[in-house]
Design goal:
Blueprint lengths: L1 E5 L15 E6 L2 H6 L3 E6 L15 E7 L8 H11 E11 L10 H5 L2 H14 L3 E8 L20 E7 L13
Parallel strand pairs: 1-2, 1-4, 2-3, 4-5
Antiparallel strand pairs: 5-7, 6-7
Length: 178
C-alpha cells in the first residue's frame, strides 16, 4: 500500500507493527523528514507557497494529514491536489487535536470550538468532492505513566478525525462518486 504522509515531520504517527506500507512524506523541514523512520521517500515543500503535489495522478492508496490541516492557508487547493494523487477509492484521513500553534494556524481555527473544527474539515472534504465521509472523536483516554506530559495533563489530548474516499465518476453505479 502506498501512503502519503502530508505535512509530515519526525513522526508519521503510524504503529511500528504495521507492515507492507510504502510511506512518502512531504513536509517543510528536511531534518525532521530525515529523522522519520517510516518514510521511504522524502520531499520538502511548503504547501502554503505551492499547493501542487509532485506526484502523478493516482499515485497513492491513502493520504494522511496529522495535526496540520489548521496551518493551510489554501486548504481547498491542497485537497484538490490530494484528490488528484489518490487512486479511485483511495482514502484521505485528516486528524487533529486541541493542541496547536495559535501563531501559525489560520484565524478561523482559533475562533471556533473543537467540534466545529471537525465540521469545518468535513465541509472542506465535501467541497473537494470526497465521498463516504466519516468523523470520529476520542476523548478521556488516560496518558501512559511514561508520557512526558503526564504532569501537565492526566488525560491524553483529544483526537478528532475526518476521512473520506476519492470516488471514480467513470464507474457507473459506484457508491463513492465524486
Amino acid at each position: 500500500m502506498k501512503v502519503l504522509d502530508l505535512m509530515s515531520s519526525g513522526d508519521s504517527h503510524l504503529p511500528a507493527e504495521v507492515g507492507g506500507l510504502r510511506v512518502s512524506g512531504l513536509g517543510m523541514n528536511a531534518a525532521e523528514l530525515d529523522a522519520n523512520p517510516h518514510l521511504a521517500e522524502r520531499r520538502v515543500q511548503d504547501l502554503n507557497a505551492a499547493a501542487a503535489l509532485p506526484w502523478p495522478d493516482g499515485s497513492f492508496d491513502c493520504v494522511l494529514c496529522t495535526a496540520s490541516i489548521e496551518y493551510l492557508v489554501r486548504p481547498a487547493a491542497v485537497l484538490d491536489e490530494v484528490k488528484r494523487v489518490l487512486r479511485p477509492g483511495g482514502v484521505l484521513a485528516i486528524s487533529f487535536s486541541d493542541r496547536w500553534f495559535p501563531t501559525k494556524a489560520i484565524r478561523v481555527w482559533s475562533e471556533i470550538h473543537p467540534f466545529e473544527r471537525m465540521g469545518l474539515v468535513l465541509s472542506l472534504l465535501r467541497q473537494a468532492g470526497f465521498a463516504d465521509l466519516n468523523t470520529e472523536s476520542l476523548r478521556g483516554t488516560r496518558r501512559p505513566a511514561d508520557d512526558k506530559y503526564i504532569g501537565r495533563r492526566s488525560f491524553a489530548d483529544p483526537l478528532f478525525a475526518v476521512w473520506g474516499r476519492r470516488g471514480n465518476p467513470r464507474l457507473k453505479g459506484w457508491p463513492l462518486v465524486a
